């Protein structure tokens, strides 16, 4: 029997995109041009192509301009850096996203370091990482920011809650921990070397699973009533021969019998990631044009 409330990330993302759309219309009226997001994709990875197409469609639907740059997989690193430099200099481009992962012959850190931090709507540049760590305004990575929005919507204040983040990546785990610290949670970051992970998770009021291991977190690890945020997007063989399905890092069946609230996969964190990207882009547009914006409306 399932007892947990399902956290509807898809619906929350839709309402966030509506708010972004209103702010974007206001920006267009004030600036005399639309806000613009540039997405750079290197290579032909089918999943990445789907994400980039969805980002482009949703950007246009919010009343912003979308610029797509698709480069072949064998593009020289210097040529990618030149594209980024051109986007840095382009006044029509407010936000730049270089889709990761990049092909193996490229140095991701070097590419990210080339993006103007004030157009870095992914929040991956070390300047934005440092701003987040020290509490300065900057750009926060989309996936963890989306997770915190869902948590605050569900729980109100997070102050004093025990949060366990499983995963220590630069893209999710580490910025997630920073955001939860800023919300006055007591934060534990667990990872592949953590001893007795179920015992660590048992103390958590909030569990954020971002490890990339299908259905790893089981219901009997959870404190009853815990809020579970599943960041995993794992494509696994489906019930039907030859078909695949998406599952998270949490075993939804057992976890939803113990948790108080839980995000599903798909329809949870994933849609929030793109909606927050659009949010960050309209924020970047205002900041870079010197226009005031009450970010609380987003
Ligand atoms: N520079 C950069 N920034 C990113 O933000 C970035 C990236 N690179 N590389 C790839 C990952 C992945 N990512 C997702 C976005 C939306 C869904 C999403 O909407 N998922 C749907 C399901 C989609 C499906 O059916 O495949 C859902 O969970 O409901 C998933 C994954 C952003 N990424």
UniProtKB/TrEMBL annotation:
Residues in Tetrahydrofolate dehydrogenase/cyclohydrolase catalytic domain copies: 7-122
Purpose of the protein: Catalyzes the oxidation of 5,10-methylenetetrahydrofolate to 5,10-methenyltetrahydrofolate and then the hydrolysis of 5,10-methenyltetrahydrofolate to 10-formyltetrahydrofolate.
Listed GO MF terms: methenyltetrahydrofolate cyclohydrolase activity; methylenetetrahydrofolate dehydrogenase (NADP+) activity
PROSITE patterns noted in UniProt: THF_DHG_CYH_1, THF_DHG_CYH_2
GO cellular component, one term: cytosol
Keywords, comma-separated and alphabetical: Amino-acid biosynthesis, Histidine biosynthesis, Hydrolase, Methionine biosynthesis, Multifunctional enzyme, NADP, One-carbon metabolism, Oxidoreductase, Purine biosynthesis
Binding sites annotated in the UniProt record for NADP(+): 167-169, 233
Similarity field: Belongs to the tetrahydrofolate dehydrogenase/cyclohydrolase family.
The keyword Amino-acid biosynthesis belongs to this UniProt entry's keyword annotation: yes
Residues annotated as domain Tetrahydrofolate dehydrogenase/cyclohydrolase NAD(P)-binding: 141-288
Pathway: One-carbon metabolism; tetrahydrofolate interconversion
Name recorded for this polypeptide: Bifunctional protein FolD
Originating species: Novosphingobium barchaimii LL02
GO terms of biological process kind: L-histidine biosynthetic process; methionine biosynthetic process; purine nucleotide biosynthetic process; tetrahydrofolate interconversion
